[in-house]
Amino acid sequence: MVSFEWQNSNKLLTGPLSVVIKIIIFHLTVNFAYAGAVVTANPFATKVGLNILKQGGNVIDAGVGIQYVLGLVEPQSSGLGGGSFALFYDNESKKLYAIDGREKAPKSIPYDFFQQFRGSRRGFFNLVTNPASVGVPGTPLLLENIHAKFGRLDWSELHEEPINLASNGFPISPRLHTLAKKDRFLRRNTNSKRYFYSALDKTLFAKEIGYILKNPPYANVLKQFKNQGISTSFYNGTIMSKILLDLNNVKGNSFLQTDDFKNYSIVYRKPLCGTYRYFRICSMGPPSSGATTILQTLGILENFDLAKFETTSPELIHLISEATYLAFLDRNSYLGDPDFVSVPITQMLDKQYLKKRSELISPLKKIQKANPGKFENFQQKSHSVDHSMSSTSHFVVTDNWGNALSMTSSVESAFGSRIMSQGFMLNNQLTDFAFRQKDDRGVRIQNSLEPEKRPLSSMSPTIIFDREGNIFALLGSPGGKNIISYVLQTIIRLIDFNFSPMEAVTEPRIVNTGRGLVLEKNKFPIEVINKLKKLGHHELRERRVFSGIHVIKLRKDKIKTYIETGVDPRREGMALIE
Q: What's the whole-model pTM score?
């Protein structure tokens, strides 16, 4: 970052010429007074992202390198075999872009194929590990496309560090070891078994924490990306052919074909934005449910003075839980892929509608039962359940030009389908569809399985702007449907309570996905729990939660931007500022 110390220049410069030089220095300071910052779920990814910024790259360049590394060092969460949503703010044009790299269902998959897996946990995981759960990956094409449009560095400059890390190896982290150790399905796949486990006396053991794990096939994939481009190598070339071969070698039903890869495209969608207490909150609209559900919940809560409560008080927890419950009723009924179904977004986010929904909330007792909203000229839909899992990753980046990137990526379950191809895990993202086509009235469910459709997601990459239009904060989280509660709660902490990012991400978590209140285990006093039960939250549960909220908060004056970061202590992330 270019910067000049105004006080020092006054001492050095005198005379008429100094006035001109001081003016030049002042304008240089204003024009370059942005700062680069990177927050990711893994130190290796954060360091690669910052190195790219130091080489003159922008947030898009850094994002490519970061995602390559995340897919390598935390394959349980995201990677080249999965999908992504990215929210990119281009400071030069003052324009916000929402890029959809969500997976798509194969063209040949039968509409009713998932019906047979309904009704049991065993059936669900039989589908998770079946090649039929794998959608066309979107993350690689998203990376190539956004770099071609917005990157600064040459494409070839983004690959060397990730390639070297894959070739030379990285130490297995505690989280990766723990998840591989306890996973019941990962060792069933030949490639995954060889990569994650060692054999001793015919017994498999997850490779230990600190073991240097090398991944030559992954390095080879990145070399093909560097030399041939992603469109050529991944969607039309040898990488695609090998994926299809690996899927066909696994027991189950493989519907993906070459045309599914060749016809895949990312989509530039309109960012979904709304106001909350004079701030502008922007995130990803359908096929993500993130922005819609968060904005609905905030629109309901805007009718209450939240700041008068303690942040972990039963009164505040009750209000947030009730508002989230109401928003999830609409989410589970009306949201789906907008290329296939109509979604009444405008009516769902109407302030008057949300005010009426807020009137359903009593500060004295829990809502016993509510129904989804009814919207003009729109057929009421039945509640449906999606099965989104918590293995996802999120990162945020700012750069010296004032650009910002908030990106969430996923392979769905931990290690996705557990099927490894060429050093990366293939997603099981299609299990995010409803497992039935129609409700009991014969009305098609919004998030039902259809060929070439994208399943509903909860990923919520978010950028917040202040009343002057400056970036206030970037954030997001992994966590499946819990993402919505994690991001929502962090927004409230940042805005209503003026918390620092680190305070906001460290706070005890509360979650409601429409199925009752969940409190982070061992984080709330018994008095709070008892009061919540008296308010009617009898089904309240305490569980460990694995949010991975990453935040960059900006404060700007006339000559400088001040940066604060937040790294969720529940995962293995790290923040660095240039």
A: 0.92
